[in-house]
């Protein structure tokens, strides 16, 4: 099991980024959350197989159609931070 935290910057708030990230994560069998940060970026925590995480990374680099991703950072995370599902907070 892999746990990773992503910080996504660019035009990522107000463009359905979190809801679309949740849809992607659930389709990939991941659990975790997506939340807006006060500085305009979005944090995504994902827990699941490394292959599923890699597929999520590919999606996060682009995001939904109205988004513009300028930066994507990955950090190690603790899988205990994720709940049983993938939520928007």
From TrEMBL:
Protein keywords: Hydrolase
PROSITE patterns: ACYLPHOSPHATASE_1 (PS00150), ACYLPHOSPHATASE_3 (PS51160)
Positions annotated as active site in the UniProt record: 18, 36
Residue intervals of the Acylphosphatase-like domain: 3-89
MF terms (GO), sorted A to Z: acylphosphatase activity
Catalytic activities: an acyl phosphate + H2O = a carboxylate + phosphate + H(+)
Record has GTP-binding as a keyword: no
Major enzyme class: hydrolase
EC number: 3.6.1.7
Annotated Gene3D superfamilies: 3.30.70.100
Similarity comment: Belongs to the acylphosphatase family.
PANTHER family, per database record: ACYLPHOSPHATASE (PTHR47268)
Full protein name: acylphosphatase
Organism: Montanilutibacter psychrotolerans
Lineage: Bacteria, Pseudomonadati, Pseudomonadota, Gammaproteobacteria, Lysobacterales
């Amino acid at each position: 099991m892999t746990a990773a935290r992503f910080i996504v910057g660019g035009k990522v708030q107000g463009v359905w980024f979190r809801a679309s990230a949740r849809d992607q994560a659930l389709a990939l069998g991941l659990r975790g959350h997506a939340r807006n940060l006060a500085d305009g970026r979005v944090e995504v925590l994902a827990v699941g197989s490394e292959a599923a995480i890699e597929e999520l990374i590919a999606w996060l680099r682009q995001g939904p159609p109205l988004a513009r991703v300028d930066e994507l950072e990955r950090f190690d995370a603790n899988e205990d931070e994720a709940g049983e599902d993938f939520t928007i907070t």
